[in-house]
From TrEMBL:
InterPro entries, alphabetized: FAD-dep_OxRdtase_2_FAD-bd, FAD/NAD-bd_sf
UniProt domain FAD-dependent oxidoreductase 2 FAD-binding: residue ranges: 3-316
Protein's recorded name: FAD-dependent oxidoreductase 2 FAD-binding domain-containing protein
Highest taxon of source: Bacteria
Organism per entry: Robertmurraya siralis
Any Pfam family hit: FAD_binding_2
GO molecular function, one term: oxidoreductase activity
Keyword tags: Flavoprotein, Oxidoreductase
Family matches, as Gene3D superfamilies: FAD/NAD(P)-binding domain
Amino acid sequence: MYDEIIVGQGLTGLLTAIWSREEGKQVALVSTGLGKIFQSAGVLDILPGEDSRFADLLEKYKLNACSRLTIYEAAKKYFQLTERIGYPYQGNIEAPITIITGSGNLKETAFYPDTIKPIPEQGHVVIVGFEEVVDFLPKYVKGNLQKSRPSLHVDTMTVSLGKGSSRTMSQLDAAHLLDQEKVCQHVLDQIKLKMAAKKIAKPELFIFPAALGFNNWRKVLEQATIQLQAAITEAPGMPPNATAIRLHDKLKKEAIKLGVRFYENTTIIGAKIEDNKVQAVITSANLEIKSESYIIAAGGMLGGGIEKTATGYKDKVLGLDLDHHGCYMSCPENVWLVGASNGMNVTQYGITGGVYSILSCYQTFTARKQHMKLGGLQHA
Ligand SMILES: Cc1cc2nc3c(=O)[nH]c(=O)nc-3n(C[C@H](O)[C@H](O)[C@H](O)COP(=O)(O)OP(=O)(O)OC[C@H]3O[C@@H](n4cnc5c(N)ncnc54)[C@H](O)[C@@H]3O)c2cc1C
């Protein structure tokens, strides 16, 4: 018997598992597959797919005004965690930065890892591609960048990852290769040679694909910054982006280290409910898993927790009735919802955006603590 079962191992499931385990709870995390972090850019946006301010999120998701204060606490807790696990995030909810994507288009984001830097309005930048990584094309990136930053002076170059890297690679493959010191040095040496040959002097920023090391990203970033004497940014684009996979990897390792029990490749298809309380969740292999409380972090429609049918929405996890916004008509006392499990009102294009993911995990975390202190029932 667990204190808490979390359904889903996306950003919200992993964060909830870690924060609950830190409170001393016995936690199990059950998931069909991996979360959407794997397809994301690894930066946490306010509203997905559009430049926005926190006020826009409050209005669009119909959140109460307390959320403005709560997001600062939530961000602080998230930043502390990411610092501790060795992949620090930063950012200010009131002052999103403009970053470059792997296509050269710009977008705003609120919270981002150390490998991401803002794109300046003017000055001099160099875009560096790798011969082996064919979905990041410096000249194409430059074309798009200059549409929105016409005053920027932009140079481009392509370098090789060196011997043993002749095959076509994803950005993640390249990141693993760059973990090796000699590969990293080989790349930096080529950049310096090309800069000398092209007479490129003192750019303010180098733009790379999201591939600057995986486990050794800090060392790669440090070496590049020192040797190229400029700021360095990754430009996350086509998945898999190292920016995002590093986050998932570090969060999962932390959850395992803290003692969260993982049930992987396990789909919840229903629940035993008595007296308005879930007694157990039922897996597709007909196994019952029991807990005091249950957190649904199943990602809504895109994550797989909610299905759109001809007549409305269907809850694929507990099998309960949903209203026309995809929200539970009546939520059992010991069930809590995070992220897009809260229904379609907190999504845009079917997804929530990373800022809301963190906010909703933190709100659920603090609400549960408060109810436990008061000895009260736990409501979603
Ligand atoms: C392609 C793509 C790119 C994105 N890029 C960005 C970005 O750059 N910035 C940003 O801020 N946001 C981005 N998002 C949004 C981002 O994914 C979400 O904000 C957040 O990561 C969602 O996390 P989650 O934990 O709520 O859900 P998910 O990541 O969807 O996780 C859901 C989990 O629940 C599991 N699950 C579902 N049903 C069941 C079941 N019945 N039984 C067991 N397990 C189940 C799934 O296997 C999965 O592990 C992107 C989303 C997509 C789809």
